[in-house]
Amino acid sequence: MQTPSLRTENLTIRFGGHVAVDRVTCAFRPGELTVIVGPNGAGKTTWFNLVSGQLRPSEGKVFKGEKDITGASPSARAKAGIGRAFQLTNLFPKLSVLENVRLVVQARRGAGSRALSRAAALTDIRDEAMATLESARLGDVAGYPASALPHGDQRKLEVAMLIAMQPDIFMFDEPTAGMSVDEAPVILDLIAGIKADTTKTILLVEHKMDVVRALADRIVVLHNGELVADGKPDAVMALPTVREIYLGVSAEEDA
Prior knowledge:
CATH topology: Rossmann fold
CATH architecture: 3-Layer(aba) Sandwich
Low-confidence stretches: 250-255
Number of domains: 1
CATH superfamily: P-loop containing nucleotide triphosphate hydrolases
Strand content: 15-25%
Order of helices and strands: EEEHEEHEHHHHEHEHEEHHH
Radius of gyration: 19 Å
Strand order of the largest sheet: 6-7-8-3-9-10
Distance between the termini: 38 Å
Helix content: 25-40%
CATH class: Alpha Beta
Number of helices: 11
Mean pLDDT: 88
Shape: globular
Structural class: alpha/beta
Number of strands: 10
């Protein structure tokens, strides 16, 4: 079996007497898009924060490949290939749309002042950033300050920045939250494009069932911080326990 690109082992975090994530053991492989679902307060975003390093676990471990990264900082995890898009936009608001993406390309390439002193290097980095914006349908607003974009375009810009990082593992926390019906397909097309690269692993927290059905190879269900189901979408969503927890359908109603 293929070695997992990412796995968590008995991952747990407590806040006082509250266990927000409770001994979650799960492995993810390249070429797989996994959607993490569950009701509000299930621990989905907290688990994401543990994986990406925003929180440190009370117990358990996080591995990227065979390497234990439990003690690594968020920036070290990003450099190792774990890319995270947040539920709320995380941009440089005063910089232009193009500059937001250009900085990501520059950082990924490790382009320091010497490299940037060359006109060719500057042009190459700018061209890559612009191509990424075009793929996100943001080319027409490249010169605008990021803060001037409507919410939907800010979400698209954050996804474009994540793509520009070229991580091995993509983590999206409700990428279509707050977006209109017309705006959301652009984000879904971008994620589908990433999914076409079978070397990438994608984790997606999402509430919208149409998004889940369109993209998921696999569903993981969290409830009260515990992993309660894991498998193919149709099989997981048919489970009586999952229908009751996530869809609010009781066993009696299901019958």
